[in-house]
Amino acid sequence: MASTVAGTSLAVSSSERTNFRIQVSVALILALGIASFFWLDSRYPALLKKLHSGTAIKASGVLSFDAKLPVAPQMPLPTRIERTTINWMWTNRIGMTFSLFFGAAVLTLLPLLPSRRFRSAAANTALGAITGVPLGVCANCVAPIGQSLYEGGASSTTVLATMISSPMLNLVVLTMVFALFPPEVALVRVAVPILLLVSVPWLVGETKPVELQCQVPSVGWLVPAAGTVKQYLKNLARLAATTIPLMILAALLGAIVAELIPSQAIPTHVSFLGIVLVAVAGAFLPVPMAFDVAAAFILMTRGVPLPYVATLLCTLGAFSVYPMLIVGRTMSWRTSARVFAAVVTLGILSGVAITLL
Questions:
Q1: How many CB atoms lie within 10 A of CB 352?
Q2: Cβ atoms within 10 Å, residue 73
Q3: Among residues 87, 93, 134, 201, which one has the fewest Cβ atoms lying within 10 Å of its Cβ?
Q4: In whole angstroms, what is the distance from residue 87 CA to residue 69 CA?
Q5: Whole-structure pTM value
Q6: What are phi and psi of 217, to 5 degrees?
Q7: Cα distance between the two ends of the chain
Q8: Cα–Cα separations (whole angstroms), residue 273 to 137, 267, 276, 344, 350
Q9: CB of 160 within 8 A of CB of 146?
Q10: Which of 202-211, 264-273, 291-300 has the lowest mean pLDDT?
């Protein structure tokens, strides 16, 4: 026997409530266990290492910290694009693995909760901002998690706020920003994600709510526990099938743009058109966590004008072609286009502001 739970109504018997709690507990243990292992074993040690590198921070590729395959300017363009694509996927392998496993756990847990959203768009946005700050994943790796939140019944504003705050408001990354850049650049970099979060309700617009149902087995404890694990594996397989192909496509598109427009192409003379082009490229290119800080700092030390540096710093890690594809396919293409346009606009304003200062 099984009872169907839809929305927030849990009109079930006492034994079914007990088994329902077992399902919630198993899903919660999966989510917390996966997150804790990633944070303690990989992500935060890696971020702290980059922080402690200080001005010695380096990047091995145009889109990655780690270069699995060497890329040289004299290589043919198709070879460089192929190797840059592979290097990007190699650098993001841990973060993407976490996003799939954690996203599947979120997608298993959320439908079991009696409440997943507030009535206020501002409260839902704040919830997403708070959720995203400790995640410690880049704009690319947070995309499958955002898809899981949306399909699990979270508010669209919560989803988008999570995807903005994770790469842009991470405390370790912000510490790196203030340690490496002039105060005015660092303050502009903080203002951009705050303005994006404020505009989230407008960026989201109207999206259709997701209909949810979950089955609550009513016999014993083993059945609901095993059923939760089975549902988790199903969610993991479905999430991987829908996001990995887009990840490969995003890596390829990012590699094409990065190799066709190398950093050496950034002009030494500041112009409004130059700021616009840097903002568009920065919002499009997919980069790993904290790579925006490293790339912008390296360019600054090489003499690239500060307005271009600020523009790149405010756009490169905020969004990319990969979350653009995920948000467009999952939520709406209008929302995806709005977010991209908002990031580009704020990047342009950042460059102009630094020029005036």
A1: 17
A2: 8
A3: 93
A4: 6
A5: 0.88
A6: -60, 145
A7: 69
A8: 31, 11, 5, 13, 14
A9: yes
A10: 202-211
Tokens (6 digits) for 92: 């993001």
| Structure tokens belonging to residue 17 | 């409530």
The pLDDT of residue 264: 66
What's the whole-number mean pLDDT along residues 17-43?
88
Looking only at Cα atoms, what is the longest distance across the chain? 72
| Tokens standing for residue 159 | 């989803």
Answer whether residue 8 shows pLDDT above 50. no
- Chain-wide mean pLDDT for the chain? 87
pLDDT band at 219 (very low <50, low <70, confident <90, very high): low
Q: Check if the beta carbon of residue 152 is closer than 8 Å to that of residue 231.
A: no
